Amino acid sequence: MAFSSPFEGQTTTSDLTVTDVVVNFQGLRAIDRVSLRLQRGEVLGLIGPNGAGKTTLVNVLTGFQVVDSGEVRLAGEDIARWKPHERSRRGLVRTFQSVLPFGGLTALENVEAGAMATGAPRKAAREAAYQVLDSLGLADKADRRVDTLPFGEERRVGIARAIAMKPQFLLMDEPGAGLNDSECDDLLSVIDRIRGEIDCGVLLIEHRMSLVFRLCDRIQVLQHGATIAVGTPDEIRADAVVRKAYLGDEAV
C-alpha cells in the first residue's frame, strides 16, 4: 500500500547542505569543517566510530546545536538562525536514537501529534495519522497504547509520527538499534518507501552495516569530527582508510 494523501501538495525543495561547519565544545573540536549534501529522494548514510561527530552534526542540521562557523542551507536559504520547530515546520524532521513515544497515548494519538505539529487541524491530523499507520501495516494497532507494543512496532510508530510531519528531509539516528533481523528488514522496506514514494531525502546514522550497504545511495564517513570519505557503498566498502578506521573485516 502506498503512502497517500498526507503528502499531497508538498512544496518542492532543493538540497539540504552543510558547508565547512565547525563546532567546538570547551576547546574540543567536535565537528571539523564538515560539508554534506542531501538531495530529495536520496538515502545518505552517515557512519563512523562512536564519538565521530555524527549525532552532533544532526543536532546542527535540526537546530539543537549552534555552529562556530560554516553554513547550513535548506533550498538555498540560510537556516542557521532558525529554531528547531521552525526547521521541522519546513520539512526538516528527525527521529531519535531512543524511540521517545508518548507512552500513555495510543499509536494513533502519537502519530496524530506529529501531524498536528505541521499546523493541521485536529480532524485532518487524525485522518492523516490513520493513513500513515495503515501504510506501515499498523492500522490494527491504532488504538493500542504505544508502551504495550513490541519494540519493533513501537519504533515503527515513532517513524510514522515523523512521516506525519510531512518531511522533505528525514534525519534518522540509529533506527535499527535493538531490532532483530526480521524487524530490520521491515525497517529497510519502510525507509526505501519513504525515499521513493514521498520523494524524501533520508540521512541515516546507523551502526548496522548490512542495513547501510543495502539501503544507502551514498555513504559519508566521519572520524574525529572530520569527513574521511564520501562515496557509493561499493566505494566505501573498498576504501582502505575507511576499513582501517571503522569497518575492518565487516566490509568484506
Please sum up the structure shown.
With 252 residues, the protein is an alpha/beta fold. It is built from nine helices and ten strands.
Q: What is the CATH class designation?
A: Alpha Beta
Question: How many angstroms separate the termini?
Answer: 35 Å
Helical content (DSSP H or I, runs of 4+): 25-40%
Q: What number of structural domains do the residues give?
A: 1
Tell me the number of helical segments per DSSP (H or I, 4 or more residues long): 9
| Arrangement of strands in the largest sheet | 6-7-8-3-9-10
CATH architecture: 3-Layer(aba) Sandwich
* C-alpha geometry: globular
Sequence stretches where pLDDT stays below 50 over 5 or more residues? 1-13
Sheet of most strands: 6 strands, mixed
CA radius of gyration is 18 Å
Share of residues in strands: 15-25%
Strand/helix succession: EEEHEEHEHHHEHEHEEHH
Q: What class, by secondary structure content?
A: alpha/beta
CATH topology: Rossmann fold
Tally of DSSP β-strands: 10
Average of pLDDT: 85
